Amino acid sequence: MVYRINEPSSTRFMVHGEDIKARMLDISQAGMALVTEYDIPVATQLSLRFTMLKVDKEIVNFSGPVEVAGEVKSNIPAENNEHRLGIYFTKVKKLEVPH
After folding, report:
1. CA distance 30 to 89
2. What does the mean pLDDT of the chain come to?
3. CA 28 to CA 66: how far, in whole Å?
4. Between 91 and which of 5, 25, 36, 69 could a Cys-Cys bridge form, CB atoms 3.0 to 4.6 Å apart?
5. CATH number for the 9-94 domain, one of 3.40.50.1360, 3.90.550.10, 2.40.10.220, 3.40.190.290?
6. Tens digits of per-residue pLDDT, 10-20?
């Protein structure tokens, strides 16, 4: 059985060797939007790794891990001293899953 909660996903990424916690708001082929308590400046280069799932009606398929390089294009102050980051993907690589 697979289920999903209709709220932002939690994610983590690395900035200058520090593990950063964030909530993913949305994702597309070109980039993603995150909310985090960290004030990451525009033009910062990021490395992110996450797992994609493909949802087709009621069926969820594992699409595999993805590693992306991205650049912070926007940083908008949000509630609770958080920041909404707009990240543009500069490189996307689907990782091979060992069998």
Report:
1. 6
2. 80
3. 13
4. 69
5. 2.40.10.220
6. 666 666 677 77
